Amino acid sequence: MSAYITVTTPMIDRDLLLQALADVGFVEERVVVSEEPLPLVGYQGDTRVQVANIILRRQHLSAASNDLGFLSTPTGYRLIVSDYDRPRFGGAWLSSVAERYRAREAERDARLRAEELERERERKRQLVEAQRSAIETKAKKLGYSVKVERNQEQVRLVLVRRTY
User: Fold this and answer.
1) Parallel, antiparallel, or unpaired for β 68-73 and 31-41?
2) Maximum CA pair distance of the chain?
């Protein structure tokens, strides 16, 4: 029976961790995800005391492997790996998962920044349209005709009043 060790990771977002695991070959069908930690299973099919929220079951690792898991903690996920599986799923493997996690995090952050910029542009467009409408309404009440000229992102209002 292999002993398990726990390795603290800087990974805190479950979805990003799952994406990183998929990037290194553990697609959704090969990963067990649970809000409540589930027990890990040893290579002989025995239930262990170690628990995890994200589990890579032993049948997806190798014939003699134990389950591999990530336990959610307030400070991030902790990798739980057996001594037997540590050479294959230890430092180098965890580094590649962490690298993919950071890449996915950067993609998400860039997407969120782009979405925020688009929302800001839309807010500004709505403000300009509201101001244009208010000026046009007031100008018409005062007897002006309004000519609207648009040039890309600019709006120019020309107020004309004929007096005889």
Assistant:
1) unpaired
2) 103
* Secondary structure string (H, E, C) spanning 30-82: HEEEEEEEEEEECCCCCEEEEEEEEEECHHHCCCCCCCEEEEEECCEEEEEEE
**In angstroms, rounded to a whole number, what is the distance separating the alpha carbons of residues 8 and 79?**
6
Number of compact structural domains in the chain: 1
pTM of the complete model: 0.74
Q: Does the residue 67 lie in any domain?
A: yes
pLDDT above 90: percentage of residues in the chain: 60
In a domain, 71, yes or no: yes
Q: Is residue 119 part of a domain?
A: no
Range of the domain at 79: 4-113
Confidence tier at 1 by pLDDT (50, 70, 90) = low
